[in-house]
UniProtKB/TrEMBL annotation, chain A:
InterPro entries per record: Longin-like_dom_sf, Sedlin
Protein's recorded name: LAQU0S10e03598g1_1
PANTHER family reported for this sequence: TRAFFICKING PROTEIN PARTICLE COMPLEX SUBUNIT 2
Gene Ontology biological-process entries: endoplasmic reticulum to Golgi vesicle-mediated transport
Pfam families (UniProt xref): Sedlin_N (PF04628)
Signal sequence interval, chain numbering: none
One CC-aspect GO term: cytoplasm
Organism for this UniProt entry: Lachancea quebecensis
From TrEMBL, chain B:
InterPro entries: Ig_TRAPPC9_Trs120_1st, Ig_TRAPPC9_Trs120_3rd, Ig_TRAPPC9_Trs120_4th, TPR_TRAPPC9_Trs120, Trs120_TRAPPC9, Trs120_TRAPPC9_N
Limits of the Trs120/TRAPPC9 TPR region domain: 353-592
Coiled-coil intervals, chain numbering: none
Domain Trs120/TRAPPC9 fourth Ig-like, chain residue ranges per copy: 1110-1208
Domain named Trs120/TRAPPC9 N-terminal: residues: 4-302
GO cellular component, one term: trans-Golgi network
Protein name: LAQU0S14e00584g1_1
Record flagged with keyword Membrane: no
Keywords: Golgi apparatus
Subcellular location: Golgi apparatus
Annotated ranges, domain Trs120/TRAPPC9 third Ig-like: 935-1103
Residues of the Trs120/TRAPPC9 first Ig-like domain: 606-709
């Protein structure tokens, strides 16, 4: 399933954007390509809401429809991974929040072009996020990189894409 | 009241129309008056006869009016009027402010105009009419009463209206509307009736076994079907009654009716009506709890929510939920259902309402979804959406704010309407919804194909959703929804109603959108904004959308504004075609109508300079006169090295680096203005206008027509280009500097804007306090009045070149002319500089020993002072006159490198009075010189002279002169020497010459071309009395500081000795010559250039100074002897009186015998001379004052015997010849 991934800085500016597609899978239709940043931008509201919750786990578990968030696998260090935070028609949106307020957000599309809701495999998506986070921390250690500036390193890009191939485009 | 408030179904839709002559403003004010008093308490309304809607039946109840002024989309929703009767506009109120018409006539007209409404009323403002039924006079204070009266009318009409419904078979909207109804279209698979429900309901309902096959089973089971149909119809009637009672304010009754209807409908699987009935139930419950009327939760609620409530809600509702499950109170309503014994009914105090509302709502949505499988009995999308929105509104009106401040803002904020349910905001947090829950619920809308709905509904849904997001402060979501709305509006804006609607609201919508996506940043002006990056893809997209929307309504101004923003701030993400179309289609057409638009790139002008034209005359420099510069500051501690003195000393020879700060132009001069423009865009830029600021224009102007011919000036896409324009200077700046900082530039015929000169962009660095966006530049210049202009006209030298013999002099003339017609040159300073000086490095003096330095500087000084002289220096050159100057060129002591010189004239006009600075110009006249060698001195030798040579006739030399002088007692006896001087004539002609040494002169000799002659001059040796050892080598340039050369004291002494010896010789030695050619050229020979430094031996001969404490005098009786004769040599050791210490230690004395011809030392055993004893002896000077050496020569020749005492040579050897 094609994915659209972005790292959002503290001022709601994209630090890194990428679209993960593979040849055998469909890519995003053009009109959706244009819409993707908007969907992602809109989901930031939810992340911002979640990140200030005193006890984020409790807010979702009770209610009937929102119970998926962090109710699963929340036992181990998972409080960075926010799980599925939003959806828009057939697209599912997952989020990951670093302690430095960097928001990692991804739009997952289903294979069947939006007619069914995209399924999110929490385990692999979480692993993807965690490894990208690690890459990001390494980028931060670069003395020439300034926080909140776009990441232009081709190495970073290729590594993220490799991670995407491993975890997402299966 | 909000469009989709939860309480919407309980509000009476009332249309307010103006009658008479109303201004829009005042009419809306009156409408607002009504809107603020929308509630009428039933207790205030006069009772009716009809029992159903009698206000006295439930006096706590309220009538809620929803006053609005337009009936948008009313017809399209007609098919829903049976299903949801509250959609109808029941009441029409005409506001009248004139008495033009009889009230009754007006009323009739109103009824005719709005026949569908059931109650028509007239309200007179400002005029008084006799009040009758449906006609009222209102003032601002009694609007409440009027509203109550209108309410009573409505209730009367409602009972009539309801009676017509009593016997109608109620059909579902799908059946009424047919194919035109938009069915709810879910993205996911719609829910089917859950198995548990089916099994449970099946136990109650024998007529069918599943919801899906219900219609089939109805047909097959005739009898049961009929009764089921009847039951269903009855239930539907019951539900409609509930709706009307809700409108009439009788909430308890409506609650019961809805509950009854829901129970039956649930039983018969009439899902769509069931959903609607449950919705009514929710509203009734909410209203009742708002009125603080206690009631019992109907049994159907516990029945429906049993599963979900008890399984999923305990976390959210905590203890309250438990009270529901274990409610001990048994419902008394046994009549309702046979199931009631199993199902608990709960008093409202024991539950928290909001979670229950949400749970019920989810159930309703589920029933709506289940209904979709049916052909006609399905839920239209409008119904589904509106229900979601109502619940969302309910949820958002009391979400759980995180911080107290936000909570109060929510309470007090002007945006929350007065009729929002303020009672609930006092609830504790456990009852409230989180933003997350609200957002999740709102996402249900995004499972629907909203674009299949009609446009008005879409607009309403999207705007309501946006409002909800706004209320819970999800501004990004709000913007996103607005963007979806705009995109869906875009293709349909042709429709007139929508067009008007949009035109009214676009301002607010678009600007809020721009704010939300951060498009209000100003990177072109604020450094903060420029440093922070933002999401340009989104921003560009939104702006393009805005432009498209604006162009749909032909708002040129707005199109232009947005296009400008896009071009100015987002040009880097625009393609060439996008930029072009923005410019050509959006901006340029707007120029004609709006002249205030300026060019959008503030960094257009990247550089501005005024250059001198190539053929310009020299511009004068300021020179200070009259003020004596005391550069030679007194140096108190000459021993202390001062590193800062360096620059001062260097400046003697440093080429003047004129630090020009401001360029100077002459009045009336034409110069070239160079402007550099940048074009960061992907289209060609056209500069259409250029002008100076008003202040600048006084001093400098464009040359006539130059701007016309050069403009429009094109700057290609993505490039920088320079424009060259001639300018003229008009006014003197009076010695001050004028700053040119900005220029008015017009682009594409836009209004010219004053642009700063931007040299470079500033970037935000941490810790940097710069707030300015760019580094601005300026151009400084001065305009000065006309000055004298002196030109070199001619000289008597051919092409300013001459050939001159070394050691001669020459005279020539030059002519100068002041070309100025009005200014005399009355400040004239002549100097000259030769190539010798020009080629010197600044620090030429640093690393050469002092004696060489003296030589070099001696020559330089001479070159400066004597080489070129002007005989008749004028004081003033009047305007337009010529003067002739005579010059002498003297190369008697010029360096051999001398090949050219320049005469430098610094001149200017010195005004009367005591001006301390004037403008000067410099005129340089270059000359080339070829220096030819004439007479040279290839070598000089000094030999000691022992014997006295008598000055007899025919003798080549004589020492009479020296001896005589010694005899006269003028100086002590120092001995004499011979100076052997070779002089060569390198010129083509022979020369007569005479050499002088002090008072001695040789005979006049003739030296043929290329011949060399040796002159022998007897001289006296210099006495020790001169004390040259301690005499410093003089320095010709003072003030320099030398770093210690590292020479030892004795080295310095030797150098001084050599130097002073040479100086003494040079001082005495002179030579004049005269060529034997036609012109009889005469000159003199400068020995200094030819004579090398003296070697130690020469110095030893010339200067009778000994370093040793002893001296040895060697003597013989004979200087000529035959082979085999013996010769005794005496060596007499004496003390040196001048030496400070004389010791008595034994020393080694050694005789050295040389062959005089070869100059070689003879070995100790040889075949030439035999000697007695040893050559070296150990002596004690005190006692052995004389030592003898006997020797016998056995070979003829000339020999020299020297002596060495403690490896110090004696001065004078002895010579003897063996024949």
């Amino acid at each position: 399933m094609p994915c659209y991934f972005a790292i959002i800085g503290a001022r709601d500016n994209p630090i890194y954007e990428a679209e993960f597609t593979s040849q055998q899978l469909n890519s995003f239709p053009p009109e959706l390509k244009e819409l993707n940043p908007f969907i992602l931008h809109a989901s930031l509201d939810i992340i911002e809401d979640l990140q200030w919750q005193v006890n984020p786990q409790s807010i979702n578990s009770g209610s009937g429809s929102g119970g998926f968030l962090r109710s699963r696998n929340s036992s181990n260090n998972g409080n960075c991974y926010l799980g599925k935070i939003d959806h828009f028609y057939g697209l599912a949106i997952t989020g990951y929040l670093s302690y430095g307020n960097m928001k990692f957000v991804m739009i997952h599309s289903s294979n069947a072009n939006g007619s069914t809701l995209a399924q999110v495999e929490d385990w692999s998506v979480r692993s993807f996020y965690q490894e990208v986070h690690e890459l990001f921390v390494k980028t931060l250690m670069n003395p020439f990189y300034k926080l909140n500036d776009p990441i232009t390193s081709p190495v970073f890009d290729s590594k993220v894409r490799a991670l995407a191939r491993r975890y997402l485009l299966k | 009241m909000k469009e989709y408030s939860l309480l919407g179904p309980a509000a009476v839709r009332t249309l307010v129309v103006p009658i008479g002559r109303w201004e829009r403003e005042s009419f809306l004010k009156k409408v607002q008056l009504f809107q603020e008093r929308f509630e009428a308490r039933l207790v205030d309304i006069t009772p009716l006869e009809d029992a159903t809607f009698n206000p006295q039946g439930f006096p706590q109840g309220r009538l809620m009016f929803w006053f609005h002024t337009s009936m948008l989309n009313e017809e399209q929703m007609l098919f829903l009027h049976d299903f949801e009767p509250y959609r109808k506009t029941f009441v029409v109120v005409g506001l009248v402010n004139t008495l033009d018409q009889d009230p009754l006539t007006s009323l009739e007209a109103l009824q005719k105009r709005y026949p569908d409404s059931i109650s028509h009323n007239l309200v007179y403002f400002g005029v008084s009419v006799p009040e009758s039924k449906n006609v009222y006079c209102a003032t601002s204070s009694n609007v409440e009463t009027t509203v109550c009266d209108i309410g009573r009318n409505f209730l009367e009409a409602l009972s009539l209206y309801y009676s017509s419904y009593k016997h109608v078979t109620l059909r579902s909207p799908g059946a009424v509307g047919g194919t035109s109804v938009t069915k709810t279209s879910l993205m996911r698979q719609p829910a089917t009736a859950p198995a548990s429900t089916v099994s449970r309901v099946a136990s109650m309902d024998t007529s069918s076994n599943s919801g899906l096959k219900r219609s089939g089973s109805i047909k097959s089971l005739g009898l049961n079907a009929t009764s089921a149909d009847q039951q269903r119809a009855k239930a539907r009637q019951c539900k409609i009654l509930g709706n009307f009672q809700l409108l009439a304010g009788r909430y308890v009754d409506s609650l019961n009716n809805f509950a009854d209807a829901a129970f039956t409908l649930h039983k018969y699987h009439d899902y769509i009506w069931l959903g609607s009935a449950l919705e009514g139930l929710i509203i009734s419950m909410v209203l009742l709890s708002q009125l603080r009327v206690s009631f019992q939760v109907p049994a159907i609620v516990s029945l429906i929510c049993q599963i979900k409530d008890f399984e999923q809600l305990p976390h959210a509702t905590r203890s309250h939920r438990n009270s529901l499950s274990s409610a001990p109170v048994q419902s008394p309503r046994n009549s309702v259902s046979s199931m009631s014994s199993k199902i608990h009914t709960v008093d409202v105090q024991n539950i928290t309402l909001p979670p229950l509302v949400k749970a019920l709502s989810e159930k309703i949505l589920h029933y709506y979804e289940v209904s979709l499988l049916h052909n006609t009995e399905y839920a239209p999308q409008v119904v589904y959406c509106e229900h979601v929105l109502r619940i969302l509104n309910y949820m958002s009106s009391h979400y759980y704010p995180r911080t107290p401040s936000k909570r109060t803002a929510q309470l007090n904020g002007s945006q929350s309407p007065r009729n929002s349910i303020s009672l609930w905001t006092q609830d504790n947090s456990a009852d409230c919804f989180t933003k997350w829950e609200i957002c999740q619920f709102s996402n249900k809308l995004f499972e629907l194909q909203l674009k299949e709905m009609d446009l008005v509904s879409q607009i309403k849904i999207y705007t309501s959703l946006a409002c909800i997001y706004r209320d819970i402060e999800f501004h990004k979501k709000q913007s996103f929804v607005l963007r979806i709305l705009l995109v869906s509006l875009l293709p349909q804006l042709e429709s007139e109603t929508i067009f008007d609607f949009w035109k009214e609201t676009q301002d607010e919508t678009l600007s809020s959108l721009l704010d939300a996506y951060g498009i209000d940043r100003q990177p072109e002006a604020l450094i903060e904004d420029a440093a922070n990056c933002s999401w340009v893809t989104i921003q560009k997209n939104i702006l393009l959308l805005c432009i498209a929307m604006a162009s749909k309504i032909y708002d040129k101004r707005r199109i232009c504004d947005y296009s400008l923003i896009l071009l100015q701030r987002y040009s880097h993400v625009l393609t060439q075609s996008e930029q072009n179309s923005l410019l050509q289609n959006n901006i340029l057409p707007a120029i004609d109508s709006d002249s205030t638009i300026g060019y959008w790139d503030p960094f257009l002008l990247r550089n501005l300079q005024i250059m001198h034209l190539e053929n310009r005359r020299e511009v004068p420099q300021v020179k200070l006169i009259g003020v004596e510069e005391s550069r030679e500051t007194k140096q108190r501690h000459s021993q202390v090295f001062n590193p800062f003195k360096q620059s001062v000393i260097n400046s003697v020879t440093d080429q003047k680096r004129a630090l020009e700060t401001a360029k100077k132009f002459l009045l009336g001069e034409t110069a070239e203005l160079v402007l550099t423009f940048q074009n960061p865009f992907k289209f060609n830029l056209e500069i259409s206008h250029l002008s100076f600021d008003f202040e600048d224009n006084k001093f400098v102007q464009f040359l006539k027509n130059s701007t016309i011919t050069e403009l429009p000036f094109k700057v290609r896409a993505n490039s920088m280009r320079s424009l060259h324009l001639p300018v003229k200077f008009l006014k003197e700046t009076n010695g001050e500097t004028h700053l040119l900082q900005r220029l008015n530039v017009g682009v594409f015929g836009l209004k010219p804007t004053s642009l700063d000169i931007v040299l470079a962009e500033n970037f935000k660095n941490s810790g940097d306090q710069t707030t300015s966006r760019a580094k601005f530049g300026c151009f400084e210049f001065q305009v000065i009045a006309e000055q004298p202009e002196i030109e070199f006209m001619s000289s008597t030298l051919n092409e300013n070149t001459c050939m001159i013999l070394d050691g001669t002099k020459k005279s020539f003339e030059i002519v100068l002319r002041n070309q100025s017609l009005c200014r005399p040159a009355n400040y004239l300073q002549f100097t000259h500089i030769t190539n010798v000086e020009m080629n010197l490095k600044n620090d030429y003096w640093k690393n050469i020993p002092p004696d060489d330095l003296y030589d070099a500087e001696y020559q330089l000084k001479w070159m400066q002072k004597n080489c070129i002289k002007i005989r008749n220096v004028p004081d003033v050159i009047p305007p337009n006159t010529s003067v002739e100057l005579s010059l002498d060129l003297d190369v008697t002591r010029a360096s051999f490198q001398f090949s050219k010189f320049e005469i430098v004239l610094e001149y200017g006009y010195k005004p009367e009075g005591t001006a301390c600075s004037i403008f000067t110009k410099t005129l340089r006249i270059p000359f080339d010189v070829t220096l030819k060698r004439s007479l040279e001195v290839p070598s000089l030798e000094v030999v000691p002279l022992i014997e006295h040579i008598q000055g007899e006739d025919g003798a080549l030399i004589s020492t009479d002169r020296i001896v005589g002088k010694a005899a006269s007692g003028l100086s002590e006896e120092t001995g004499s020497a011979l100076l052997l001087l070779d002089i060569r004539n390198s010129w083509y002609d022979g020369a007569k010459l005479r050499v002088h040494f002090e008072d001695y002169s040789t005979e006049e000799e003739i030296l043929a071309s290329t011949n060399t002659k040796r002159f022998v001059i007897p001289i006296k040796r210099y006495s020790f009395n001169h004390n040259w050892d301690h005499k410093e080598i003089p320095k010709l340039v003072s003030g320099r500081q030398f770093v210690n050369s590292g020479m030892a004291q004795d080295e310095v002494t030797i150098m001084r000795r050599k130097f002073w010896c040479r100086e003494a010789i040079l001082k005495s030695l002179k030579c004049d010559w005269k060529l034997q050619d036609a012109s009889q050229t005469a000159g003199s020979l400068d020995f200094r250039q030819f004579l090398d430094k003296f070697d130690t031996r020469t110095v030893d001969i010339l200067y009778t100074q000994r370093d040793s404490p002893f001296n040895v005098e060697i003597s013989t009786q004979k200087s000529e002897l035959h082979m085999g004769e013996s010769l005794r040599i005496y060596a007499k050791i004496g003390y040196n009186q001048k030496h400070p210490c004389s010791e008595t230690k034994p020393v080694k004395l050694e005789f050295l015998i040389y062959n005089r011809r070869t100059g070689k030392l003879l070995p100790k055993s040889n075949t030439s001379i035999l000697y007695n004893g040893q050559l070296s002896k150990r002596v004690t000077p005190k006692y052995d004052s004389e030592i003898t050496l006997d020797l016998v020569p056995i070979d003829n020749g000339e020999y020299e015997v020297g002596c060495c005492l403690d490896s110090v040579f004696n001065d004078v050897p002895v010579y003897f010849r063996v024949i």
